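For the sake of clarity, the format in which proteins appear in this thesis is described at this point. The fold follows as a row of integers, each naming the local backbone shape at the matching residue. One such record is shown here in full, so that the layout can be seen directly:
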Amino acid sequence: MKTTVLITRYGGLGDLIMILPTLQGLKRQYPKAKFVLRTYKDYVGYVDHLFDQTILDDNQYLKYPFESGWKEIGNATEFAETGQRVLHINLQGVIESRSDVHGVIAFRQEAGVTGKGVEVHLPLPFEVNRQNVTVVQLRDDKDGRGLTKNDLPQCLQQRDDVIWLDSLLTPKDYLRTIAQAQTFIGPDSSGLHLASALGVPEIVGLYSPEFPPAIRAYPNVKAFTLKYEFQKELSVMYAEKSATCPICTESAVEKREIYWMCPSCDAWFQHPMPVKKFEAQEEKGADGRSNGHNQSEADLEASARLASCFAHNWISRVRTEGPAKTLDIGCKYPYFAYTLQKLGMESYGIDGMDFDADQTPILSRYSEELGVPMLMVDFEKVTPWQILNNTDSKKRFDAISMVHVFEHMYDPYAALKTIHELLNPEGYFLIRVPSHEVPGMEWHMSERHYSIHPFYYSEQAMKTLMKTSGLFKIVETYPMGAGTRDYILKPV
């Protein structure tokens, strides 16, 4: 009597790979049987490349594919011709499990599969050309296995030898993309299973607590269940051995936390740079939007004192026709500019801060509240002409200030050039910035600061920056509390 072997297995592409050893074993045990595989229709194209025609005769997996979701097994005899018997193998269990889930051990023994875990080696219908690239599979599902780009360290996100696996690729291109990789990174899903089966040399997988590596073991996989450990491993794998200092172009080989420390000019810098943000996540509400200025009464008083000191000690020295014109860059809540305005000056603010929850620009509200004209743009993306053209007098500024803002600049030389073009040749430029040689710097060494500060300077680093730029000279500098230093600069 002829035999039809009906295999039922729905699930993802990885699930099909898991059952391959069982299919091969069953084929050896029933060499003359007809094999039919029931699975999702979406995976038909992949089956073409995964399963040899000696296992699935005449594309029998096409006969009864699932349309979507899980359906009952139904009457298996409908798959057989008259006079044939049907052997129904339900592989809905976790076939790769090391425990007897859904009778897995019995299935494996019947199919002649031995050993722990899954060992699958896929022959491909094309030549594999291994390249020195990293393939990353991203998912955004709800079962704890999802990955987004933000789950990966910056050093990996910004590399040019990374291929982000596109699930819309054709089956052949999907397989080819993974097969060429030197390293594969992804969640416990189809890409990781394929990478293991295709012999990718280095694989890093993120598993869920519900399905940990202990029951879903694959060869050659560095397995993690916590995203923190996963990110830490990747950070080590992709850490660069040195980085070129953006200030003096010397090579830095030592790091403090995530900052490279330049041995020549003493600047600390991130490489690669973090994604640009105007505020740290801790400064935002539950909806991801800005909480506002978050300044206490003490903060406002300190801002007013600094503005008054700048006005009386420096701005008063500038010869002007009419009121002195000032610009506070990165002002957020423009209390510094407001204080200068109360002292009789033509004062402006500029900031690129996010909108608040009701979609009303926060800065517009602040501007109206304090009566300070404000320009809502990213300072590093606007021209001097655009800034001046949005002021009443159109003339250059007599004083410019950056209070805890200069460390946010991604291109300090370009920022200095813009400020030089905005500033009256007799004017003054005030910078208050974290300075790592000043006691109390540890206050600035936190995750929220790392996400928004690409640079930390010292007095030596600032002197190198000014000398190299040829745009400003340091007139006066003095350390402040909590790892901070003030600079008074004048155009050269």
